[in-house]
């Protein structure tokens, strides 16, 4: 599994991911930027990334705030 697939899989599992989440998996944080520019991820806040088709709800927003 390449780094792109691993990062997307992590985003599916966690909902929102942070640079420290991908670094814990041995993936450089630069991959988050690359995946955003290619459209595979979206930046939803400072240091928070999610899949473009992720459902936006109040619960997810509260989870994002809690991660900060």
Which key terms come to mind for this protein?
68 residues, three-stranded antiparallel β-sheet, Arc Repressor Mutant, subunit A, globular, 13% strand
Account of the protein in words:
It is built from four helices and three strands; from the N terminus they run αβααββα. The chain is α+β, with helices and mostly antiparallel strands and 68 residues long. The chain has one domain: Arc Repressor Mutant, subunit A. 13% of the residues are buried.
Sum this structure up briefly.
By secondary structure, this protein is α+β, with helices and mostly antiparallel strands.
> Could you say which structural class the secondary elements and strand pairing correspond to?
alpha+beta
Classify the helix fraction into a percent range.
Answer: 40-55%
- The Rg value, from CA coordinates, equals 11 Å
Low-confidence stretches: none
* Sequence of strands across the biggest β-sheet: 1-3-2
Straight-line distance between termini: 29 Å
Q: Assign the CATH class.
A: Mainly Alpha
The count of β-strands is 3
Order of helices and strands: HEHHEEH
Give the total of domains.
1
Largest sheet: 3 strands, antiparallel
If helices are DSSP runs of H or I spanning 4 or more residues, what is the number of helices?
4
Dominant shape: globular
**Approximately how much beta-strand content do the residues carry?**
5-15%
- Annotated CATH architecture: Orthogonal Bundle
The averaged pLDDT comes out at: 85
Quote the CATH topology: Arc Repressor Mutant, subunit A
């Amino acid at each position: 599994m390449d780094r792109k697939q691993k990062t997307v899989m992590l985003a599916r599992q966690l909902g929102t991911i942070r640079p420290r989440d991908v670094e814990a998996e041995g993936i450089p944080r630069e991959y988050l930027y690359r995946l955003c520019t290619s459209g595979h991820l979206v930046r939803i806040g400072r240091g928070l990334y999610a899949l473009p088709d992720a459902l936006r709800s109040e619960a997810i927003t509260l989870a994002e705030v809690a991660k900060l």
